[in-house]
Amino acid sequence: MDSTQCVCSIIHWNGRLNLFHNILSGSTARLVIPFNKRGSEGRIRNSSRLTAVLLAFAAAITMCVSSVYSQGHDLVIQNGAAFSGTGTITVKDSIINSGVTSATAISGTVILPNTANQAIGSTSSGAIQFGILSLQGTGTKTAFVTVTVTDSLNVVAGAPLNISGDTLRIGKLSGNAGTITSNANSVIEYTRGDGVAQTVMSGAFSGKIRLLNNSRKVLGGVMSIDSLEHSGWGLTAGSNLTISSKASIDTLLGNSAAISTTAGSLTFAKNITNGGTITTATGTINLNGTGTQTNTGGIISITGAGALNIAGNIAANPGTLTLNSSSIVTYNGSSAGQAVADVGYSNLIMSNSTKSWTLGADRTVAGNLTLNVNSATTVTGAHNLLVSGNVTVNSNLDVSAANALSFANAASTVSGLNDIVGTVTRTHPFTAAAAYTFNNVNTTVALSAPAAGSFSMKVMPGGTPTGALAAHTISRVFVPTFTNFTSGTADIQLAYLSGEIGGAAESKLKEFSNGISSVTRLTGGAYSRTAAGGSFGYVKLTAIANGAFLSGNQLALDDRFNVFNSIASTAYNITTTWDAAAIPTQFDDVAIINGYNVTVPDGYAASANSITINGTGTNTLTIGGGTSGTLAVGAGGITNNNTAGGLAVAAGGAVTITSGSLTNNGKVTNNGSITVGP
C-alpha cells in the first residue's frame, strides 16, 4: 500500500471487531476495522458492538489524514465514496481522489487549515463539490481538479488558493481576504441563479471568469481578468474592472466605476446603464443591445486606435464620448432609422440599416466618414457637417435638410457608388487645374485660375431641371454657388445614374445653365462622355469661360440642342457624317462646314433646330435625291452663307421652317419646295 495514502479498511482478524491505530513508516495514519473471519467462526458474534463502533466512527467530527506535500493526514476519496450531513471535516493535509473519475460531493463544511501546502484533488481525476469550503493557514491550497462550492467559499487572510489550470465554481457566497492565483487556463464561474445578487470577488486574475444564470452579479471590488463572459441577469460594477483580453457582458445594469480593456474586446450583449467609464485603448467596445443605451453621466472612451460598435439607440442619452483621433465608431444596428448621437467623431461608419442624425450644432468628423451598403443616412438641422478626411458613400448620405457637408481639406475625396444629396462645400484654397470631387466620385470641378473663397455644388438626384423634357433630360438638378471662380475657365464634370436617363441619348448629352435651350447650352473646350452602367455616367466640358454660368444658376444635362458639324460628304442620316457621331434631331443645331456636301436622301425625313451653311469653301446641303426627301427646321431657322454651294432643294424635295427664318447670304437652288412658317 502506498504510504502517501490513508486507507480506511475492513479486514478479518480472529472473528473480533477491533478499532486500532497503527503507525507505519512515514507516520501514515491507518484506520483499520477488522472483522468477519472466514469459517464457522467467521460470523460476527456481537452485532451490537459493531453497531456502536460504526456509529462512533460516523460521528467523528475531525479526520486528519496524510498529504502529498507533507505525508501524514490526507482525506482519501475512492470510487463509490459518499458524504452526507452538515458537520465539519478538517483536513490537515490534502484531499486525494487519485483514480476516481466521477464527481464527488462532500456536504457540510470542509476546512483546510495547514501552514504547509495542501492539494485539492488529484491530477486527471473527477471533480469535487463542497458545500462550504474554508481555506485557512499560510500553506498554498492548489486545485488539481474542478472544484465546485455550492454554498460558500471563504479564503481567509493569509491563505493562498491556486486554481492552477482548473475550474472553480462558486454557487452562492465567496470571500477573499487571502490570495487567489490563477493562470491562462484557469476558469472561475459564478453560478448563482436563485434571483439573489451574487458578489464577484475582487483581485487580479489570469484566465477567464464566467458570470452565469439568473442572479445579478455585483463586483465586490477592483478586479482585473484576462477574459470575462457574462450571461443571464445584469452585471453591476461599482469598482474598476480591467479586461486584458476580451469580455462578453449580457446586461450592464449599473456602472459607477471603470470597465476597461487595453487591447481586448468588451461586448455588452444587451442594453447598458453606465454612469462610470467604459474604456479601451486599441481594443473594441461592442454595445450589442438593440434598445436604448443609457450613458447619462457616464463616459465611453477610446484612448487609442480602438473601436466602438453601437447597435442600439445611444442618441437620447449619449453622456460623454471621448474619442481618440485614430478611433472608429460604427453604428451597426439592423433596425431602420437608427439614431446617431449628436457629437463629434474621429472615424465614423454607418452599416446594416438606415440612420438619422439631427445636428444641434456644427459637428466634425475628424477622420473618414463611410456609409456601407444598405445604410442610407439622413442628416437634418440648420448646421454643417464638417469632414476632415474622405467620404465613402455606398448608400446615399442626404444632407439636403442641413446646411451642407463641408470639406476644409483639399485632400478630401468622395468615393463609392452613391451620392451626397444636397450641398457639398469646399472652403479650402483650390490648386489651379486640380479636379475636386463634390457629391460623388464623378462630379468634379477644376478651376484654371482659382481665387480665394469657396465652391459649393448642390445635387438633387431625381430632380426636374427647368425646361426639362421627358426622354431628353437627365432627372437630376445641379446648382453651383461660388466665390472663387471670378476669372479663368472651369472644367465641369456632372454625373448621373442609369435610372435618371429616362430615354435620353447619352452620347449626345450636353451641359446647360439656367434652363435648357440652344442659347443656354454651355460652350467651351471639348466634351467627353461616359455612359452609365453599374456606376455613374458623366459628361465633362472643359474650358468653360468665367461668366458662362452664374453662381446659384441651375445646371442640367440634356441630349437636345447639340451642335453637329459635318466631317464628311455623305448622307445626312449616317453617324459618320457628323463630329457628334450621331444623327441630328429636331433639337440639334447643324453646321455644314469644311467644304463638305451633305445630302438628305430620297425617302428620309431630316430634322434640326437650326441649319447653318458656312461661307468658306464649297459647302452644300442638298435636300432629296430627285424624287423625295424632306428637312424640317425649328426655331433656329436656316442661315445660308455660302455662295458656291449653299442650299439646294432637288425635285421632289421639301424644306419646312416651322417657327424660324430663312436667312440667305449666299446661293439657294430650289427645284422642290421651301415653306417658311407653320
Describe the model.
Among the domains are: 47 residues, no CATH class; 102 residues, no CATH class; 114 residues. The chain contains one helix and 62 strands. The strands form ten sheets. It has a 23-stranded parallel β-sheet that branches. Strands 33, 35, 36, 38, 40, 42, 45 and 46 form an eight-stranded mixed β-sheet that branches. The longest helix has 12 residues. The protein starts with 8 loop residues before the first strand and ends with a strand.
Helix content: under 10%
Low-confidence residue ranges: 1-71
Overall residue-averaged pLDDT value: 89
What is the global morphology?
Answer: rod-shaped
Number of strand segments: 62
Rounded to an integer, what's the Rg over CA atoms? 45 Å
H/I helix tally: 1
Largest β sheet strand count, sense and barrel closure:
23 strands, parallel
Structural class based on helices, strands and sheet pairing: mainly beta
Strand content: 35-45%
Distance between the ends: 127 Å
